Amino acid sequence: MTDILTVTMNPAVDIATSTDKVLPTHKLRCDIPQHHPGGGGINVARVVHRLAGDCAALYPAGGVTGELIQRLLDEEGVNSICIDIAGETRESFSVRESSTGLEYRFVLPGPELMSHEWQACIDHFSALAQPPRYLVASGSLPPGVPVDFYARLTHLAKPLGVKVVLDTSGPALAAALEAGVYLVKPSLRELRDLFSETLETESQWRRAAEQLVVQGKAEVVVLSLGEGGAWLFTNEGACFAPSLPIKVVSAIGAGDSFVGAMVWALARGLELKIAFRYGVAAGSAALLSKGTGLSLSEDVARLYGEVRLI
């Protein structure tokens, strides 16, 4: 089995294009679109593959769009396991306004999964002859999938010695944290939603992140502040990585790139703070790519040396 298995319950074909100006009513002439296989865990697997890591992506997909995801992953050389479903896999659409640099993102709902379809994903993990060292549960849950789906996976993975890395939001995030994961990467907005508090000051959101560690909900908390940098919290303390001066082309997939590079580094046996630096470098590198182009290995290597920990 691979070192890293990612799970993406709500995959998508990500379509990215640009137009001069976004206006209502008018026909907007767009540039030639880019098509990428998308969804949290799929993006993580793409980044790990680019860094020459050992990874596989597990996801449910169906219809013409599902076939396209499989083909796009094959073209990138990403090892994947597709669980067939009856519904049509979704698309996501982003438009960059060339005149302003603003980016507009349109995210469609995923197909409703029947109980035997999402259960097949759990069954696949349970049937593995050799479990992965890291299980990355990333992205939203589509209709029909119970909110405790990631929690169920976590309960199965932990007794096997598998380290669960979680990157989701809302009820799915809260449920999985109750099961206790190895690493969680919330944004500040997701942390606020989790605690149902505004967390306006640094001391407030730092205390909230530290509480997740103290309560045993996560051994490691990586708090993303976007342009404000990122924090790393463990029971041994905290450190901060300021953001790098990057001219942003697109912010799509920056968080997935962060997770991908960090888990890749951990799977190589690198120290946690070094893995954190790689995550920051990859998240920054993703800002240089259009749409969900994600981070490139050469950019990650170059930017790694610029990441400072305070």
Main structural class:
alpha/beta
H/I helix tally: 10
Major pleated sheet: 9 strands, mixed
Q: How many runs of DSSP E, i.e. beta strands?
A: 13
Q: Describe the strand arrangement of the main beta sheet, using strand numbers.
A: 5-4-1-8-9-10-11-12-13
Domains (count): 1
CATH architecture descriptor name = 3-Layer(aba) Sandwich
State which percent range the strand residues make up: 15-25%
Task: Describe the global form.
Answer: globular
Low-confidence stretches: none
Give the name of the CATH superfamily: Ribokinase
Helix percentage:
25-40%
The first-level CATH class is given as Alpha Beta
Q: Would you tell me which CATH topology applies? A: UDP-N-acetylmuramoyl-L-alanine:D-glutamate ligase
Mean pLDDT: 96
Distance between the termini: 37 Å
Rounded to an integer in angstroms, the radius of gyration calculated over CA atoms is: 19 Å
Write the H/E string, N to C: EEEHEHEEEHEHEHEHHEEEHHH
Describe this structure in words.
With 310 residues, the chain is an alpha/beta fold. It has one domain (4-22, 32-304): UDP-N-acetylmuramoyl-L-alanine:D-glutamate ligase (3-Layer(aba) Sandwich), CATH 3.40.1190. The chain has helices at 40-50, 63-76, 115-126, 149-157, 170-179, 188-195, 202-214, 254-267, 272-286, 297-304; strands at 4-7, 12-19, 34-38, 55-61, 80-84, 90-97, 103-107, 134-138, 163-167, 181-184, 218-224, 230-234, 237-241. The mean pLDDT is 96.
